[in-house]
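Researcher: Quick one. two chains, 303 residues in total.
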Amino acid sequence: MDELYIKKVLNGDSDAFRYFVHNYKDMAFNIAMSVLKSEFDASDVVQEAFLIAYSRLSTFRGDSKFSTWLCRIVINESLKHRKKLSTYDHLHPDIDPANEVAGDEIFDSIEPMEEDQRKYFVELALDRIASREALVLTLYYIEGYQIAEVSDLTGWSLSNVKVILSRGRKSMYAELNRILKSEKQLLY
Amino acid sequence: MTMGNDPDRLGRLMSGAGRKMPFLGFEDEVMKEIEARNAMSRLMKMEIRLSRIFFIAGLVIGGVVLSVPGLSFRFAEENGIPPWTALIMIALLLVLLLFSEKLARVTSLRNSNHQ
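Model:
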């Protein structure tokens, strides 16, 4: 279906590009959010990414899926925007092995929750971990890319992606644990 | 990693997550921006085309303007007209041309304002 709309756009039907915006805006927003942690910045970057994709559509060779190509543009633009803002991750201190938490306890607490609440906790935890970790976790777990694809999309080496993924998991456990604890404190 | 940190469970938990674009008018905004950029690029292309045409026209007219006085003087000489009369005639012709160009521009501006 993507190919059909690409042809339409390249033949001058610019309105056909709405198909791509409609279908991929959430994916693009999700990826940009993992890096930028701000809805407004992410929205701006996604808009810019779509405009770049539109203007460079003739260079799309079709070696990969359109979504992968767009994903690469979004990642590049997000990282560029983050660099421009010169923001640093406002993170909780590095995970100390002594403070590592058992994932099972977290999952046992979160899994029985309502879907919306589970989603809220995951998104909150993603917002609090480092951008690189959040990006890799988002690409791997939410968007369903393989490690090799994540490496290709980000331009980071395979081993680097594996390390970031592993650190990201630990950060997620730590953040989810922190969020759950503060929720419990609020309740009792 | 502590025992029990199960990547599969994290994967299952995360696969259900994923944000949606919260700004409702996003699609329209992108399409509007694309349309605006298209219009701008069309305008730019037209401007470039026009500037090429005017450049060539300028070269031709410049050549003509440069050669007209010489030809006119020769014509005046052959027909016994004093050179200064020919000069005044050429100057009047140029003024008339410039004036008509300004008049044409004002008229087209007024017409476009009426529309």
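Chain B has a mean pLDDT of 82.
Researcher: Thanks, that's what I needed.
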